[in-house]
Amino acid sequence: MTLPRSSREVRLISVPEGLPRPEHFAIVETPLPVPEEGEVLVRNRWFAVLAALRTLIGGAAKDTPLPPLLPGDTLFGPAVGEVVAAPGDDGPAVGELVSHWQGWREYAVVPVEQALPLGDALPDPAAHLNQGWSAYAALTRAAALRPGETVFVTGGAGGVGGLAGQIARLLGAGRVIGSTGSPEKAARMITELGYDAVVLRGAEPIGEQLAEAAPDGIDVLIDTVGGEQLRAAVGAARQHARFVLVGALSGQLAETGGGAAAPVEIDSYRLILKQITVTGFSGGQDPDGRAEWTGRFGGWLRSGEIVFPHVRVRGMDDAPQALHDLIDGRYYGTVLVEV
């Protein structure tokens, strides 16, 4: 393969006062990076656009497992690409597809231990950029979902929520309820993602809608949003309900501030009376668990029992706009840029 002399990448050029917009980023051409021993050069084919980048921009958030993004930094995130140069004998070979965390660029030099060969577990390589592991781990590890239980998923049309409802159903949930801010997404969640009911943000009070959708209460909450939806879930919880908090988009995507806090007032007395367990959850480093998820996900995809809701944006030039549109709630499922 004849390699180019340069590569393009998306950099942050200024820290916004509110939500980031395309003008806060620039697409920069740089010399093609050269891998050394213990590294491989990967030509990215797809990378995922994550709303959580907003929290990292400017470094307002503390105690996050990922580094802040400051002016001049290249954005990063999950990516899938093809190895095009491998100086050493260890690690993936030229031509192999790998996943890594240096998205938002055409070519990336990746340490061999961070370039994970995809294998054939999933029928579509791009599906490795799914966010289903967070939902699967939350349901099986943190919540220990039991057959017949009622599950409420906030942000049910997002990257995590678009799979969480389907996974809950496949794991034996008796009733699955989601939330979204769009009537069009709500309709698709019921027809395509297996939700039994959807509560609509901005319509009737969330608490009233949830009480109607789950008259017997909820057993499990998979929360990606926080805010009023978390508050409503406390009111709807059954005895010994388990709440798993995997995101806080109500604060991360707030118009003001740096997206580093998501305050919400909840009735702590209800937590005590109902003996609700609240767990802040991140999948973290669990290679065995991720392998388990990937195997089950691949089987469900091939059998047609699950779908991978996602949108593909073509070309690096539209990547900054894709981030803005994702934060603005215009997408359904996971957002991928096809490099």
TrEMBL record:
Domain named Enoyl reductase (ER): residues: 18-337
A Pfam family assignment: ADH_N_2
Signal peptide segment: none
Entries under Gene3D superfamilies matching the protein: Medium-chain alcohol dehydrogenases, catalytic domain, NAD(P)-binding Rossmann-like Domain
Name of the molecule in the record: NADP-dependent oxidoreductase
Organism for this UniProt entry: Actinocorallia aurantiaca
